[in-house]
Each structure stands twice: as C-alpha cells, then as structure tokens.
Amino acid sequence: MKPYYQDEWVTIYHGDCREILPELPEVDLVVTSPPYNLGKSYEQKVSLDEYASEQRKTIEACCDILSSTGSICWQVGTYIVGKGKAKEAFPLDIILYPIFKSLGLILRNRIVWHFGHGLHETVRFSGRHETILWFTPNSYVFNLDPVRVPQKYPGKKAYKGPNEGE
C-alpha cells in the first residue's frame, strides 16, 4: 500500500478507509470527518438507518486498530431532510453515539466547533457548528498542558469562594 503523502511526522493514505485501515498498525489517535449523508457528488444519499449501519462498519474498522489507551475524535454535522419549512434536522452525533457505546467506548467530551461560514438558511437558523465526539476505551492518555489555552488574565485572583483573594 503506497502512501499518498509521507514525511517524518505523518503518513496519509487516499482511499476507502475500510480497505486501508486493516493494513495499518495500531494507532493512538483517529481523527475523522466522515460523509454526512447529504447526497454530495462523492456519496449516495441513503436512509438514516442505512447510513448508521455503514458508519458502524467504519467505526468498527477504526476500533480494530485503536490502541488500548487511544482516542477517536469523530466530527459530524447535522443531516437535514425535507425542503422549505418542512426541513427537519437530525444531529448525527446523537444517531452515532449508541454505536460507539456498543463497541465499549466512553464519550469523554462532546466538543462544539463553531465557525462563521456555511450555507445561508431562510426558514431556520443557519448551521454554524459541527460536533466532535471524543471517545476512548476505559484506559486512555490525556495530556492537558500541551493543548491548554493560556489564561486570559494571568494575574487574576479568585474573587469568590473559599480561596477569595488568592
């Protein structure tokens, strides 16, 4: 299997992940944003049950190569069905959550990614966020300090509570 791109830090493969993943060694992190079943040119729109069934196969393939202390970050949006005022929104993270649970994974965070662009709606609020589900097995590694955002007011003291003035 030939990489699409490779350097000392990363290797990228291009293709169907269900064919590529079984060829890979164990990994500590899976980050993905699978198709949302919107009927785009690279996917065929199917029922939500069929979509969830196909996503289960992909999730299982990811779990098969995930280390016992690894993490899966699964980014999904909202599936919209109908037209005009008949539109209904289905949050895909809610549909996929039971699949991850059935595979023994634990949801550690439901992260909201807010962005300022996207399609403009006229019959409902425009979607300006997607959800990243962070799942792990029971045992996992989490290093907060490397990703910590510096405090906005570094010298600020506690104004209330048991440590007031500290």
UniProtKB/TrEMBL annotation:
Belongs to the N(4)/N(6)-methyltransferase family. N(4) subfamily. Its EC number is 2.1.1.113. One of its GO terms (molecular function) is site-specific DNA-methyltransferase (cytosine-N4-specific) activity. It catalyses: a 2'-deoxycytidine in DNA + S-adenosyl-L-methionine = an N(4)-methyl-2'-deoxycytidine in DNA + S-adenosyl-L-homocysteine + H(+). GO terms for biological process: DNA restriction-modification system; methylation. This is site-specific DNA-methyltransferase (cytosine-N(4)-specific). Keywords: DNA-binding, Methyltransferase, Restriction system, S-adenosyl-L-methionine, Transferase. It is an enzyme of class 2 (transferase). Residues 27-161 form the DNA methylase N-4/N-6 domain. Transmembrane segments: none annotated. Gene3D superfamilies: Vaccinia Virus protein VP39. The lineage of its organism: unclassified sequences, metagenomes, ecological metagenomes.
